[in-house]
Write a structure and sequence with these properties.
alpha+beta, Dna Topoisomerase Vi A Subunit, Chain: A, domain 2, six-stranded mixed β-sheet, 25 helices, 17 strands, about 10% strand
Length: about 625
């Protein structure tokens, strides 16, 4: 049976769930003005913080993408939950007992995501309980052989999956979980067997310590699964490209130190944390990618381009070099400087700690070198630097690396360093780097035309309105809308689809539309009537030009609706920009009523923006399309 959560309980959840604490599980927040907190938006990619949280009012808002709301809507958006699921999650977090009113009508099945999380939590507890048992001796020996005792295993919530193949399945059935739910969670297979059998198991948690999935290591030669490490399959909560092992333990340290150390395995994360490197995390069953990078950047928060650091530890072998090159290709995802820490002996952090102690792991991280330098050395190693032609080839391959260095103040030093590594003249190396930079810049797309692009003035009639340039992309939607109105008025409704004079920013386009409004919706004798209602000579000439310009497609009502939606969208975006600017300049404490009124206006405008964006999707003409995001 479906139920409705008591309104008083929802209000209590909003009151007890501090929005700054909930958001901090996902975003590093720093003090802003007027009691607000700022950070990098979790809902779109950005390098300058436009995401703002106001704890005193319980609201968040992103000035970049327009997302906003209260603590419940934040949880809905960040975890892709329904309203009810978000309230339930926050109630569990704050200890609120929800009262459900039975509506007497059949409702949807319980929230899948919440049930998967609950099953994962129960499974983690089951695995932990199996580790001290007699069957798990091999698992305990594995941990002991890597320097991890019982206390360490408990700290990292390590468990053991029995070899029988159905123990977890039967246990969770008794806990009230159906087979369908367990398959969705990736805990059992379709045939009913446990997904992990006879393996050491690590829970993989999000920054809020919810169990999203598991990683498991093979212990027995008779294991039928060939992979040494096995991870939970993709589920409603486990996306391998979006999870990092150890994030629950490292989250606060990453934000506080503005540092993240990325290692390659679960035991490496453990060794790093035990050695004092409490910012260590690892990707789970996949290469470190863009989603991981964005996650870490949000947690590190906003710094200028040269503060904060992400340090990757790789083996010194070919596989490690290949991994470093892969990271270099995605380095644009970081604002922080990116470094590589390579142990010359080839030991990973776990083995390094085992053989040389905690200090050796800390020293490994301390000996980090810039990623650019590491990649450059590997590029040069591919060439025979005793030959002049090979040196030139090495220079040409290395020059783009220098050009891509984020901190321009380091370029001169790297040029000298590269010249020394190659045994070439510094000026020759500098010239090649400059040539590479010019070539790179020539491939960049041309900048967008500003919205205030100059217009052509009628020099023979200086008192007349200016003539708008036909090629002005910033005015393309205004021009296209008027072309439709003049050439095919019947595809609009009698109110011209709600278009207003203020939607036209160019004075001549506005004058033409005002003439159209004066005539009214009268298709008979249409062009002539508009001409008669137009008093300005330039506007009359422009009307003629618009009447003869070709339309990009056969006009119909849908086409006209998309055009007017795009035009109105530009107006709404300008209003949003104006309100945002004023909001940022208004102290919410000193001007509470004004601030709340503007915030309400902004939310209304953002809602209207989304409606217009949807309505304007039918406008697919290349030359006539405006840029509502500009």
């Amino acid at each position: 049976m479906a139920g409705r959560i008591n309104d008083e309980d929802i209000a209590l959840v909003r009151e007890r769930a501090r929005i700054d604490e909930v958001v901090s599980d996902h975003v590093a927040l720093r003090r802003g003005g007027g009691g607000s907190l700022k950070g990098l938006c979790p809902f779109h990619d950005e390098k300058t913080p436009s995401f703002q949280v106001t704890p005193s009012r319980g609201f968040f808002y992103c000035f970049g993408c327009g997302e906003g709301g209260d603590v419940i809507s934040f949880v809905q958006k960040i975890d892709n939950l329904s309203f009810t699921e978000a309230v339930q999650q926050l109630a569990d977090r704050t200890g609120v007992q929800l009262r459900i009113t039975d509506t007497g009508a059949p409702g949807p099945e319980p929230g899948v995501r919440m049930r998967v999380l609950a099953a994962n939590t129960a499974a983690a507890e089951f695995y932990i309980g199996q580790l001290p048992g007699a069957e798990a001796l091999t698992a305990r020996q594995f941990l002991d052989g890597r320097g991890f005792d019982r206390a360490v295993a408990e700290h990292f919530s390590i468990g053991y999956a029995p070899r029988g193949g159905r123990e977890l399945h039967q246990h969770l059935n008794r806990q009230g979980f159906s087979d369908k739910e367990l398959v969705r969670a990736g805990l059992i297979r379709d045939a009913g067997y446990d997904f992990f059998q006879g393996r050491l198991v690590w829970p993989i948690k999000d920054s809020g310590s919810q169990v999203l999935g598991f990683g498991a290591r093979r212990l027995y030669d008779t294991d039928r699964m060939p992979a040494k490490y096995l991870n939970t399959p993709e589920t409603p909560v486990y996306k391998k490209s979006q999870v990092l092992y150890g994030l629950d333990l490292a989250r606060q340290a990453i934000g506080k130190k503005s540092q993240a150390v990325v290692v390659e395995g679960y035991t490496d994360v453990m060794a790093a944390h035990l050695s004092g490197v409490d910012t260590a995390v690892a990707s789970c069953g996949t290469a470190f990618g863009e989603d991981h990078a964005r996650m870490l950047q949000r947690l590190m928060g906003n710094h200028d381009a040269f503060n904060g650091e992400v340090i990757f530890t790789f083996d010194g072998d070919a596989a490690g070099q290949k991994a470093a090159l892969r990271v270099f290709e995605g380095d644009k995802n970081f604002i922080s400087q990116t470094y590589v820490a390579v142990e010359p002996s080839g030991l990973d952090p776990c083995d390094l700690r085992l053989e040389h102690g905690d200090a050796a792991v800390r020293e490994l991280v301390g000996r980090r070198v810039p990623l650019y330098r590491f990649v450059m050395a590997n590029v040069l190693a591919q060439h025979d630097l005793d030959r002049a032609d090979s040196r030139l080839a090495a220079l040409r391959q290395a020059a783009p690396l220098i050009d891509s260095i984020r901190d321009s103040s380091l370029v001169t030093g790297y040029v000298r360093e590269l010249a020394g590594m190659l045994g070439m003249d510094v000026d020759e190396v500098r010239a090649e780097v400059s040539r590479s930079a010019r070539q790179h810049n020539s491939h960049r797309s041309a900048p967008r035309a500003p919205s205030s692009a100059p217009v052509e003035q009628d020099t023979e009639h200086p008192d007349s309105l200016p003539w708008p340039a036909a090629e002005d992309r910033a005015l393309a939607v205004e021009r296209g809308t008027l072309k439709l109105m003049l050439q095919a008025p019947t595809v609009f409704d009698t109110s011209w689809n709600g278009v207003e004079a203020e939607d036209f920013t160019h004075p001549t386009y506005r004058a033409i539309f005002e003439a159209i409004l004066e005539v009214g919706w009268q298709p008979e004798g249409w062009p002539g009537r508009v001409q008669e209602a137009t008093s300005d000579d330039t506007a009359r000439q422009l009307e003629i030009a618009l009447l003869v310009e070709a339309l990009m497609q056969v006009p119909d009502e849908r086409y006209a609706s998309a055009y007017t939606a795009r035009l109105q969208l530009l107006t709404v975006l300008n209003r949003i920009k104006s309100v945002k600017s004023k909001l940022q300049r208004t102290n919410p404490v000193e001007h509470t009523t004004e601030y709340n009124s503007m915030f309400s206006t902004l939310l209304h405008l953002e809602s209207r923006r989304k409606e217009l964006q949807q309505e304007s999707l039918g406008l697919t003409d290349g030359p006539e399309r405006g840029n509502p995001a500009s």
